[in-house]
Specification:
Layout lengths: L2 H12 L3 H11 L5 E7 L2 E7 L15 H10 L2 E8 L9 H10 L2 E5 L6 E4 L7
Parallel strand pairs: 3-4
Antiparallel strand pairs: 1-2, 1-3, 4-5
The structure holds zinc ion.
Length: about 130
């Protein structure tokens, strides 16, 4: 197997959950979806969570702490947070960046209208 093929395989394996996250974004549209990426048995999986934001859910998200606790209890490690921007703008907002830095986990952004994914790491953010 060539190195290039191997790299492609690894990238696809890494985001095996991407379609699940996009499906969830479609179900929640026009509100923002949110979920957790966690490792269980050496596999990354998407765990959909309830958005309990008190604000306008089309433009904000807060993961239900009960969902967070359930996921935390059933997986080996939480490694990232996913949310959607139903307006199809795959750009992290200032409050997204603030949350990413505060929670100190990789943030992923999806849209119900595209198959792209945006990624930001806490150490990329200067705050
Ligand atoms: Zn956002």
């Amino acid at each position: 197997m060539s190195l290039l093929v191997l790299v492609h395989l690894l990238i696809n394996m890494k985001y095996l959950w991407k379609q699940d996250a996009i499906e969830h974004a479609k179900q929640c549209d026009p509100e923002e979806s949110c979920g957790i990426i966690a490792i269980k048995n050496n596999q990354e999986k998407y765990y959909p969570c309830k958005n309990i934001s008190n604000e306008f859910k089309a433009e904000s998200f807060v993961i239900d702490p009960l969902d967070w606790a359930d996921v935390e209890d059933s997986v080996d490690q939480i490694v990232g947070i996913v949310h959607s921007h139903p307006q199809d703008v795959l750009e992290f907002s200032e409050s997204d960046k603030y949350s990413c830095k505060a929670i100190n986990l990789t943030f992923y952004l999806v849209s119900p209208k595209s198959d792209k994914i945006a990624i930001i790491q806490p150490d990329e953010i200067n705050a």
